[in-house]
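Postdoc handover notes: sequence design on the structure in folder B. Input tokens:
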């Protein structure tokens, strides 16, 4: 396999498509047919298919986890700091798969996709997805690739929750898991902020109950929801250092106001509002304790190893939630390690602090 390396990344293959003529059945009972699952692969699968690593993406990104499609692309994939040749998840050794899950707007059949039966977007008729649906889409891709067992399943934030769901639902198919900035359920404070964001989206008149396609783009409700959500990703320390109470160029506008407006507008111009409320709701709905009766029971069948990474300034998934998860895994007999990393970067640390997360990932994958 010939790989073209760039300065600090590489040229990746274009996305691949798994076409399901019989459709995809969602956990809540709905079925969409036909159904397309978009995924990407990085590196080379070895002959006995034992070096495959599944990387699970979170709410915002999609399957393009690493590399560039063309040398002049503005940015590489969303986790390029961790995945690549000579990086934490080393593509010299591993074959990485990243699947764009149902509900996302980045290629897999989603709310904005055209329903062949009507010739219009699914919109409000698109099912409400679950984390189990996300895992099922990944399982379907694994089957198409002939991968019976993952060497590791790795993810962060919502992606980390998918990792935990894999260990609970398909323990025999996972050798080890790495979950960063995630827990078995979103704490109630996070759920509350998420609910406020979703209500902002749904109360926007332009949203039109989810059937807004062909109308206004960059919905104001979605912009505001992203601003609310973004605040859960940053720590007080990071906010103070980056903005403080500084104003913009002699005006009365705070720097943090300008920043949040920019983030909201940029996100809403690209992301789909129906996808946002569905994917975020799936994140809030997941609760392994509730689903299995206890966290101990959720991981009772998992015989692999686990690395659980938390960040001490993560407001969305506080370290105590990861510690509780670690305690339950340990009681269930799982060989689990909890690493709590000190950083000022809050929930977003997994996208920033590669110098802190890379060494433990390398050690865990090689041990």
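Designed sequence:
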């Amino acid at each position: 396999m010939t790989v073209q390396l760039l300065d600090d990344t590489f040229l990746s293959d274009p996305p691949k498509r798994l076409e399901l003529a019989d459709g995809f059945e969602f956990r809540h009972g709905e079925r969409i047919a036909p159904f397309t699952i978009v995924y990407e692969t990085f590196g080379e699968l070895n002959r006995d298919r034992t070096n495959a690593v599944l990387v699970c993406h979170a709410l915002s990104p999609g399957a393009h986890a690493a590399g560039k499609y063309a040398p002049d692309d503005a940015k590489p994939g969303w986790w390029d700091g961790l995945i690549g040749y000579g990086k934490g998840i080393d593509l010299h050794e591993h074959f990485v798969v990243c699947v764009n899950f149902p509900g996302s707007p980045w290629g897999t059949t989603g709310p904005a996709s055209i329903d062949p039966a009507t010739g219009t977007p699914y919109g409000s008729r698109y099912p409400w997805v679950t984390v189990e649906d996300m895992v099922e889409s990944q399982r379907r891709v694994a089957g198409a690739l002939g991968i019976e067992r993952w060497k590791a399943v790795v993810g962060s934030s919502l992606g980390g929750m998918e990792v935990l769901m894999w260990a609970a639902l398909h323990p025999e198919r996972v050798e080890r898991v790495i979950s960063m900035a995630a827990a078995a359920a979103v704490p109630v404070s996070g759920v509350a902020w998420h609910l406020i964001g979703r209500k902002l989206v749904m109360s926007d008149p332009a949203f039109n109950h989810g059937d807004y396609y062909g109308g206004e783009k960059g919905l104001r409700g979605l912009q505001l929801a992203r601003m609310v959500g973004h605040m859960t990703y940053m720590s007080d320390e990071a906010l103070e250092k980056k903005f403080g109470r500084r104003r913009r160029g002699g005006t009365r506008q705070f720097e943090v106001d300008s920043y949040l407006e920019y983030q909201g507008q940029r996100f809403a111009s690209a992301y789909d509002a129906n996808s946002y409320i569905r994917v975020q709701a799936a994140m809030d709905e997941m609760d392994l304790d509730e689903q299995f009766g206890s966290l101990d029971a959720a991981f009772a069948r998992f015989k692999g190893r686990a690395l659980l990474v938390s960040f001490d300034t993560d407001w969305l998934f506080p370290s105590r939630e990861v510690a509780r998860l670690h305690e339950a895994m340990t009681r269930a007999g799982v060989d689990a390690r909890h690493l709590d990393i000190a950083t000022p970067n809050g929930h977003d640390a997994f996208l920033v602090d590669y110098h802190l997360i890379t060494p433990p990932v390398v050690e865990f994958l090689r041990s």
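Context for whoever picks this up: DSSP finds eleven helices and 14 strands in the chain. Don't rerun without checking with the PI first.
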